[in-house]
Amino acid sequence: MSQIDNYAVFGSPIEHSKSPRIHTLFAEQTQQMMDYSAQLVSAEQFSLVVKDFFAKGGRGLNCTVPLKELAWEYAELKTERAELAKAANTLALQDDGRILGDNTDGIGLVTDLQNNHRISLKKKRILILGAGGASRGIILPILEQMPLSMTIANRTVAKALTLADEFSHKAKINACGYDDLKGQSFDLILNATSASLTDDLPPLAAGLLAEQGSCYDLAYANKATAFVRWGVEQQASKSLDGLGMLVEQAAEAFYLWRGVRPDTLPVIQMLEAERSM
């Protein structure tokens, strides 16, 4: 009988995680012998629990809030996108026993935008709202698509300037406060703030979205977030949330672990149907 490989997602809170469901569907679809579970792990417990997981034969982990920075520190090897993000949402055991840290959030976002929604990033004016960890994780994969410009807006301007400077060797990124956005226009606005968790909005002026522009909230919920609703009010060509990004970043982690790319579309369609019921 083939050995069943063990994977898990660690986080706190963790009870509402869709990751076990998504990876179980991927495994069934691609006929992979693996088990994937969710485990409540605090920041204080993290290093010991991760060490124990891999010591007992675990093959890979996903890490969510508040553990991504700790996972980045734990990893002995890092991909470039994880290195620049200073956070890892995926850990993978390598053949030599070392642990590789990757950040699949940004490529998950880019794949959802371009493959699933046909929103091209090339030569587009892109605005990222927020200068925290969520923004840091998506910048490099977006820059690799050669946008015309990228702007980071944040309540604390100094934080946006610092983040832009960290990627200055890759591209020139504009940084400003929300008030400084007035009079500017963008083809794609990405909400990477935590405002959606409280059904709130960053202080956005009307007129920021270009004609035929799109809005995308990295967060997702069973109903439209405040930012998705704002996008509709601004007559966005598409105003989307991050459910597709969730599935696509999971698919990238799955590929890193198993060397097989699952078909994400039926999984996204299933989750979309369930939340609309």
From TrEMBL:
Pathway: Metabolic intermediate biosynthesis; chorismate biosynthesis; chorismate from D-erythrose 4-phosphate and phosphoenolpyruvate: step 4/7. It is an enzyme of class 1 (oxidoreductase). InterPro entries: Aminoacid_DH-like_N_sf, NAD(P)-bd_dom_sf, SDH_C, Shikimate_DH, Shikimate_DH-bd_N, Shikimate_DH_fam, Shikm_DH/Glu-tRNA_Rdtase. CDD domains: NAD_bind_Shikimate_DH. One of its GO terms (molecular function) is NADP binding. GO terms for biological process: amino acid biosynthetic process; aromatic amino acid family biosynthetic process; chorismate biosynthetic process; shikimate metabolic process. Gene3D superfamilies: Leucine Dehydrogenase, chain A, domain 1 (3.40.50.10860), NAD(P)-binding Rossmann-like Domain (3.40.50.720). NADP(+) binds at residues 80, 130-134, 154-159, 218, 242. SUPFAM superfamilies: Aminoacid dehydrogenase-like, N-terminal domain, NAD(P)-binding Rossmann-fold domains. The active site is at 68 (proton acceptor). Pfam families: SDH_C, Shikimate_DH, Shikimate_dh_N. Residues 120-196 form the Quinate/shikimate 5-dehydrogenase/glutamyl-tRNA reductase domain. Belongs to the shikimate dehydrogenase family. Involved in the biosynthesis of the chorismate, which leads to the biosynthesis of aromatic amino acids. Catalyzes the reversible NADPH linked reduction of 3-dehydroshikimate (DHSA) to yield shikimate (SA). Homodimer. This is Shikimate dehydrogenase (NADP(+)). It comes from Candidatus Methanofishera endochildressiae.
